[in-house]
Amino acid sequence: MWVYNGRAYDLSEWIAKHPGGAFFIGRTKNRDITSIIHAYHKNPEGIERLLERYALDRDARPGDVHPKCNAPEFLFKEDFNSWRDTPRYRFDNKDDLLHRVKARLRQPQLAARIKKMDRLFNIVVAGLAVAYVAVQAMRIAAPQWMPLPLFIIAMVLLRCSLAGFGHYAVHRRQKGLNRVFANAFDINYVALGLVTADGHTLLHHPHTQSEVDIKKNVFTMMMRLPCLLRVPVHTIHKFGHLVTGMPIRIVDVLRITRKIGVTEVYGTWRNAIPHFAGSVALRLLLIGELVTYALAGDFLSWAPQFVATLWISTFLIVSSHDFEEDTDEHAADDADPQDWGIHQLTEAYDLKVIGNRYVDCFLSAGLSSHRAHHVLPYQGSGFANIATEDVLREEAVKFGLEWLPAKSFVTDRLPKLARAYLLSPSRQAQERQWGLVREHCSPTAWKASVAYAASGFGGLGSV
């Protein structure tokens, strides 16, 4: 079942036909897709007419919706129930922020500029990919021309930039080579795009800062660790993910896909194979780099770039929302309908690193125009978001919304995130009101630390 505007549909026959790719339909089975349809389509009204072919002519029931969104339970709060906790927004007001912005973007001149910016974005990405190969080749073949400090800086910047491309690739239609390139999301060592594409595009974006938004929870798992052990233990955990954990998860996803039937997820194996092939290829690349540096006797140059990339990228991912702060209940209900576009605009903010939006688009992993990205998540590049930012700002002002300046990742967000994620006591220490010494000397804390480090090698415990 699929639920749209409180009605039940059976889209099984549409999985393989979906112009945006079978992945998006297959992964939303037994979910409420109302916000997803309006977020990711330029013309939702046309989609509504198509949906009627698959209507079951009845209202949706709680049994039509999987209580945990057909996703791993650890991603949600223990008492989370999708039927109850999925936000319900109203999209029938043609004069709301989202409709007004989309209407302006249909103007021929602006639509042509957006396409041009997408092409320019892809050209820059191709250049970054060449630089990524060249920097590593130079470090291995002629290290005197690529000293260690320069190598670490270059690899952090390039990995963040290419992950930014992967960030937009998972939002694009999952057709053709996009199914392969979307796995560039993994190149910064943080995630596994094969599965996080679902959590990011289909749970986080349509339902930002609600209980459905797994991004609020998934990066707090390290908080079970004593604060002084958090960095080394989480780093070992993610190293385990790199060498064995994520390959195990890929095999597991493939096993599950075969078990439940590929038609239920991708429609056909023809749709599925590029997704898996791209994921496997990216994992082979990352592990191959590690092995190459080890065989070349230069492991000590690979290790610091791994640690620096991992932690900077992790902080970048959580820096564009106030996930570290306690927030009020964000879900809307029928008694208090909200404007989805305004909600997205107020729950995200833009980031800057050096102050140039086009450069920061890559240095921030695609988040320099993050507000435009959240209101228009179907756009395929950070440059397209920059091109539409003026329209969004002008329309936001008409709704009385203040357009706040971008926040600095280095001077604003990073210090706050470091205090929240690295310096705060563990969950156990907070619950039991332990001091620093007891927090780190508790047998329970050390047991949790060892288990957390080991779980990474099995692909468990975090994204």
Overview of the molecule:
InterPro entries: Cyt_B5-like_heme/steroid-bd (IPR001199), Cyt_B5-like_heme/steroid_sf (IPR036400), FA_desaturase_dom (IPR005804), Fatty_acid_desaturase (IPR012171). GO terms for molecular function: oxidoreductase activity, acting on paired donors, with oxidation of a pair of donors resulting in the reduction of molecular oxygen to two molecules of water. The protein is mainly alpha-helical and 463 residues long. It has two domains: 2-86, Flavocytochrome B2, Chain A, domain 1 (Roll); 87-210 and 218-462, no CATH class. It contains 22 helices and five strands. A hairpin with a 2-residue loop joins strand 1 (2-4) and strand 2. Helix 6 packs antiparallel against helix 7 (148-169), helix 6 crosses helix 18 and helix 7 (148-169) packs across helix 14. Residues 328-336 have low confidence and may be disordered.
Write a compact overview of the structure shown.
The chain has 463 residues and is mainly alpha-helical.
Shape: globular
Count of β-strands: 5
Biggest beta sheet attributes: 3 strands, antiparallel
| Class derived from helix and strand content | mainly alpha
| Termini Cα gap | 27 Å
Helix content: 55-70%
Return residue spans where pLDDT drops below 50 for at least 5 consecutive residues.
328-336
Tally the helices. 22
Round the Cα radius of gyration to an integer and report it. Answer: 22 Å
Query: What string, H for helix and E for strand, traces the elements in order?
Result: EEHHHEHHHHHHHHHHHHEHHHEHHHH
Strands side by side in the biggest sheet: 1-2-3
Mean pLDDT: 91
Q: Indicate the proportion of strand residues.
A: under 5%
